[in-house]
TrEMBL record:
Residues 1-25 form the signal peptide. It comes from Blautia obeum. This is BMP family ABC transporter substrate-binding protein. The lineage of its organism: Bacteria, Bacillati, Bacillota, Clostridia, Lachnospirales. PANTHER family: D-ALLOSE-BINDING PERIPLASMIC PROTEIN-RELATED. Belongs to the bacterial solute-binding protein 2 family. Residues 37-290 form the Periplasmic binding protein domain. It comes from the Bacteria. One of its GO terms (molecular function) is carbohydrate binding.
Length: 336
């Protein structure tokens, strides 16, 4: 399987910057037919998946194809398999899938391919070969998460202690890689990584797990997705302690708030909207007969910190002020 890095490398001198900022190809793909594409993510609730859906719908509108979002309401293998089977029965031409479990859903995906459907992975692959995959380099991002935690701990003068990990499950490919990279960052250090606990992406479960870790006296906790990270941040907030380092994964308004309020040091922000856009483009190309070669594209990740969020906010305020000035000038010109 080929691998392609679909990112422009930028200098990490700014606080909160990681190595890769993705570049989306500015292209419109002409469909040779009235294609119907089913987008099936792990669930329909997390902001990550909503952003992916919006990116896919935007691209579908530009390319004049149909995209339907058919994700289950919770992360559940059986429900995701049901969505896949419904897409096959519904006569869809292609599947864009973020696999909840790389093993559990593979049989249903193979049946879809055997029925003539094209398969493209977004975010998380299964064990069936697809036309293309668009995802984060999760192991590298997980390692960066670990490095950020070590840096934050050392800044507090904490050179050892136990670390808790709140993961989704032990079967989702992306979750496995994010934990593996995180653990790799701690190799050769004096920190002790405790046994991983699983929350199935549920923020309330994650908070309970994180609270138990805090009771055990951990110095840091890592959440591997939006729900896990939200639970970690809320647990640290509820503890009233400013000594515990929380690091998250994914991007949402809630996570941004937890960072701004100091309950999480940072989060690894993916680019799900670009996964959605590129996934639709790939589906159309495959349906048009183009051989995509099973290429894997890294859609990039960045580290969101309190400082980088403040910089983004200042930039937005500047842009809004400029837009307001432009509007005022246009009004004055019209009055003249």
């Amino acid at each position: 399987m080929k691998k392609k890095i679909f990112a422009a490398l930028i200098c990490a001198s700014m606080i909160g910057c990681l190595a890769a900022t993705p570049v989306l190809a500015d292209e419109t793909v002409k469909a040779d037919g009235d294609y119907k594409i089913a987008v099936i993510t792990m669930d329909s609730v997390d902001q990550h998946w909503v952003s992916l859906k919006e990116g896919a719908e935007e691209e579908a509108k530009a390319d004049d194809v149909t995209v339907d979002f058919m994700a289950p309401d919770v992360k559940d293998d059986a429900k995701q398999i049901e969505c896949i089977n419904n897409a096959v029965a519904g006569g869809y031409d292609a599947l864009m899938v973020a696999a909840n479990s790389e093993d559990a859903v593979s049989g249903a995906l193979q049946e879809a391919i055997d029925a003539g459907m094209k398969l493209v992975y977004v975010d998380s692959p299964a064990n069936v070969e697809a036309e293309a995959t668009f995802s984060t380099d999760n192991k590298a991002a997980g390692k960066t998460a670990g490095e950020e935690m070590i840096k934050a701990l050392e800044d507090k003068g904490v050179k050892d202690g136990s670390i808790g990990i709140v993961n989704i499950n032990n079967s989702t490919n992306t979750a496995i890689q994010r934990e593996a990279g995180f653990r790799e960052a701690f190799e050769g250090t004096d920190y002790e990584l405790l046994e991983t606990q699983f929350c199935e992406g549920d923020a309330a479960k994650a908070q309970t797990i994180a609270e138990n870790y805090i009771t055990e006296g951990v110095v840091g906790i890592y959440g591997t997705n939006e729900g896990a990270s939200t639970g970690v941040g809320n647990a640290i907030k509820a503890s009233g302690s400013d000594e515990i380092i929380g690091v998250g994964f994914d991007k949402s308004d809630t996570l941004k708030g937890l960072i701004e309020d100091g309950y999480l040091v940072c989060t690894m922000a993916q680019n799900p909207d670009q996964m959605g856009k590129l996934g639709v483009q790939a589906c159309i190309k495959a349906l048009n007969g183009e051989d995509l070669g099973g290429e894997v594209t890294d859609t990039g990740v960045s580290v969101l910190t309190k400082e980088s969020l403040a910089e983004d906010g200042a930039e937005e305020e500047t842009e809004e002020a400029a837009d307001a000035d432009d509007a005022e000038e246009e009004t004055e010109e019209a009055a003249e």
